Every structure is written in C-alpha cells, then in structure tokens.
C-alpha cells in the first residue's frame, strides 16, 4: 500500500512560528552541495522562501475534524536538500495544498511538470509549497495557496470555478497534502484544450501538458503516491471495487 492515510477534514489551520531548524544548521554543507548540483541541471530554479510544518494535530469538529498545525519559514534550497536526502529530519513535514481539479463530466485534470522544474515529469494537481505570500495574520492560508497555484499554472480564473467546502488530507510521517476539490463547468476535453491554449502563450510554463484521469486505468507511475491515494479514495467513494494497481506500489 502507499502508506498514506486519507482523512476528510472540515478545515486546516497552520500558525506560523519561529523555529531554529537543527537540520538546516547541521547539514549546511550537504544542502549547499545538493543545491549546486540542482542548479547545474536546472538553472531556472530559484532559492525563495517556503514554509514547512513542525507539528500538527487532528481535533474533533462539529461534523468533520479540523487539523491544526504549526509552520516555520526556511529557504527552498534547504527544503530541496532535505527532500532529496529522503526527509531525514523527524518531526518536520512537507505541507502543501493542491487544487484537485475536476471537469463537469467527472474527470480529474492533472498537470505534468515541465522539464525546467524541480519535480520534472511528475504528474499531479496544480500545487506548490506555500510561501510567505500565503500568510495572513500569522496563519498559512492553504486554500488561498491552492487558488493562486491553480491560476498561475493553468491560467484558469479561480472565480469561475466551484470550490467545495472542506479539504481531503492525504497524510504520512513526512507529508501533509491538503486536497481542495474544485469543479469546472466545462467537460474534460474542452477544459484541457483551454489550458493547453493558455500554456502555449507562456514562455516558461510550469506545466508541460495536462492528463485526464477518468478511472484507475488512467493512473500511472508518474503520479506520486499521495496523488494515487487521493484518486483511489475518490474512486472508492463511488465504486468500492475500484482500485488502482499503483496503490500497491510505494513511491519516493
């Protein structure tokens, strides 16, 4: 199995706190060496500021639980070194939100990351590691992050889409993926054509192309385990017998 737990939550709140991350200090040389290797392969990557999660708890809500966490700021170079080293610092998790885009006719629309990006070739929903632009009044606004990333990566206007209440959490010891379900009024073929037309106008798009997933047969190894876990969760909601073969494979 993928090793991920899927939880339907009412909301996710993440306070931003100061944190002197020991990993960043103790592994500074390894982090720098990894960054130089990455830049040599992909000169376009940029060492901006990002947010990671220290800890979090799931608390009972009126209907569905609410996840409360604490985040701290670091730079992308350190985050990438930590990720490339296999997430060695216990107690820290990669937290992010994804705009789980659906078409009017029930297909999931995912993007393939462009060759110049750090996760080149991977296929998942529009997303990004939250950064200081996503912080409002001392809290990370993960829904706003999902809306921003969707607009930046696909050219879609978030205001023209239907955003479903709550979040689906895909959790593991190293990751908290917050899936925000969003539905278009357009069928899959029209929606994909619209996004592809917009990507063609961007001189350096984050996405190379879009993928349509209508059922388990459309899932591929290019989709990370947390995406596969979410898709299988959604397929099982309508057909308990539906399960992807990739659910039995562990991905890094």
Keywords:
27% helix, Nucleoside Triphosphate Pyrophosphohydrolase, alpha+beta, disordered C terminus, five-stranded mixed beta sheet, globular, six-stranded mixed beta sheet, 252 residues
Molecular structure report:
By secondary structure, the protein is of the alpha+beta class. The strands form 3 sheets. Strands 1, 5, 8, 11, 12 and 13 form a 6-stranded mixed β-sheet that branches. The C terminus is likely disordered.
CATH class: Alpha Beta
What would you call the structural class?
Answer: alpha+beta
The figure for the number of domains is 1
Mean pLDDT: 91
A few lines on this structure:
The protein is built from 6 helices and 14 strands. With 252 residues, the protein is of the alpha+beta class. Helix 2 packs across helix 3.
Topology overview:
Layout: E1 5-9, E2 11-16, H1 22-26, H2 28-41, E3 49-59, E4 66-75, H3 76-84, E5 94-102, E6 108-113, E7 123-124, E8 127-128, E9 135-136, E10 139-140, H4 142-154, E11 162-163, E12 167-172, E13 175-183, H5 188-199, E14 207-213, H6 225-238
Parallel strand pairs: 2-4, 5-13
Antiparallel strand pairs: 1-12, 2-10, 3-4, 5-8, 6-7, 6-14, 9-10, 11-13, 12-13
